[in-house]
Amino acid sequence: MLNRVYQLISSSLRYRLLALVLFPILLVMPFVVGMAYLWSNEVSYRQLLMKVSTDLSVAHEAFEDQQRDYLQQLTLTAESYPFQQAAQQAFGHRPELAPLTLQLQRLQQRKLFDFVFLIDNSGCDLTGNLGCGLKRLPMMERARIENGSVGVSLFEAADLARIDPALAERVYLPIQSTPWAIPQQRDAEDRGMVFLSYYPIRDAEGDIQAFLSAGVLVNGNFEFVDQLKRLVYGKGSLAEDSLGTVTVFLGDVRINTNVPKKLAAPGQRAIGTLVSKAVHDQVLERGEKWIDRAFVVSEWYISAYEPIIDIYGRRIGMLYAGFLEAPFKETYFQALRWLGGLFLLVTLLSVTLAVRGAKSIFKPIEAMTRVMARVRAGGDERIGGLETRDELSMLAQQMDVMLDKLSQQHQQIQADADQLEVKVEKRTAQLQQRTDDLQRNLDLLKKTRQQLVAKEKLAAIGELTAGIAHEINNPTAVILGNMDLLMAELDEAAAEPVRRESELIVEQVYRIRAIISNLLQYSRPNDYLAQLSPMQVNQVVEDSLVLVRHDLAKKSIRLRLDLRADMTVKGNPQQLQQVLINLIVNAVNAIQVQLKDSPGAGEICIRSRNRGEGVLLLIRDNGCGIDSEILPRIFDPFFTRSQGGTGLGLSVSYGILERVGGEINVRSRPGLGSSFFVYLPQQPQIDQRGEEWIRKIV
């Protein structure tokens, strides 16, 4: 399928120019859509991560503020008048602990704290039977210095049971298996995370006599975590169908959260579920924050985690804030669908306008091509009137005028030639003794007539070709300029996916220019006469092989050289190189036709010898050969049997050699191969007799 499309495009200038216009549109539009997708995805995702990072900061401040509130409540109680009076009685000259114990009971009854006790300077309980097993020396030292301290502390199940058995039952939490989490060896979490506050009790002289200590369990304290959620995810902070959540972890276990077990059952909290392994390793193991998407229980959330540090500086848990990812992704994909539809509409509109605009340009070119083919085949057709009135239409009209003049000139030349032949025949009959000379003159006359007719045709084609070249070179120059601008506007990463297609466009434009150049060189050969200089034919052969050696190797064609000529001849190396490359390329094509089923059997032989006052070159192949019926026409202009050829290669080569007095001949046998003989004189002797005869006739 692709091969058929390529053949269709390469067979017509119309399809090539149309492809050059449409390829940038069809390639750049998907590229722009892809870049828009990547850019918008990156920007949107970055904004979501910035938001969740801000949410975590708000949750962190609320987490710290709650601890300070507990300390403030404890401070207000300790500084109240009834408590100070009871403390003076407890630590006065006659110690009496009953009033102070009563104050502690009243503070416990207010349910501000889950437990309250009074300890001495050594950390032992003064009003109960806890002994000295619950002292937290770092907090006592900080409270002594800062007049109060608060922090997060980890209480084992035995510690909570000694304080109050109900607290140990409250923190007991079965662990539930969770996807993406680290498998657990234990079945339940029985430790407690406590907001622990210390406040020093001083006597009248200001000396610290004891410490008032109170704690609040974080485990299962839903009022606390829901308050954090209201602060972080207030009304209007998220999409309408999104869900914001806050969680407190003890280790990697959720001990307090408003994350639902399933979205379909929001009343069931995911207590006892585990955090994913990736988050566990980064936050708990390495002590780093996690700001990224994460799998939370059963859904993907845009998540932020940070470690919770206890009073000893240990990482004992995590604080989490996050919201559902799915609503934001749905909004994002909806916007992308609208963007893709818009780009598709613009692309279809651009392609439609390009095709319609191209038709008006191609119609005159196709008409001229059709007429040129008919004239070349011997017909006498004209383009006629066209609907458009642009430059190409004017060029088509001028072509009709040129063809009319050419036809008139041809008829006049034919009449003059007929009359001249009659006169020559009469003189030949009268001058029998000069029969041989007159016969040669007659042959020369016929040749001159052919040259004259050919020159008249070349003149007309030259004017036509110059106009076509001007009109085609202008859009090709615009295409090349815009391609350079397009590649310059794209950066290296953006240009790389379309680099091969861009190079193909430039390559095809240069091919158009090469075709026009060959037409000009054939129709106006005198404009392309090059300066002649001494040259070594063998060296020109070697330089030419550099250009085709890769193609020969690719097609497994052997090259055999036998270069023995050492004579220096006068000519133009570039034009001789053009002749050699054309002959070698023709030989390669013939070998491919003959030996397409026998790769590696093709062979090309190039031989050079000194011959008289010049050098003889032989280019021989074992290709398909040339039929005897078409052998006399191979040097005719526009005659070709190869698909995609212009029919100018051998004709231009023949003209190059003729202008420097050289010769080119061919011997060929169908099925066995062809041999081309190129003779280059040491000193070019350009025969001027034909020009003199033309001047006499005119």
TrEMBL record:
Listed EC numbers: 2.7.13.3
Entry-linked CDD domains: HAMP, HisKA
GO molecular function: phosphorelay sensor kinase activity
Cellular localisation: Cell membrane
A Pfam family hit: HATPase_c
Location of the Histidine kinase domain: 467-684
UniProt entry keywords in alphabetical sequence: Cell membrane, Coiled coil, Kinase, Membrane, Phosphoprotein, Transferase, Transmembrane, Transmembrane helix
The keyword Chloroplast belongs to this UniProt entry's keyword annotation: no
GO cellular component annotations of the record: plasma membrane
Start and end residues of each HAMP domain: 359-411
Protein topology in the membrane: Multi-pass membrane protein
Coiled coil (UniProt feature): 396-455
Matches recorded under InterPro entries: HAMP_dom, HATPase_C_sf, HATPase_dom, His_kinase_dom, HisK_dim/P_dom, HisK_dim/P_sf, sCache_3, Sensor-like_sf
Membrane spanning stretches: 17-39
Catalytic activity: ATP + protein L-histidine = ADP + protein N-phospho-L-histidine
UniProt keyword Ribosomal protein, yes or no: no
Protein name in UniProt: histidine kinase
Protein source organism: Motiliproteus coralliicola
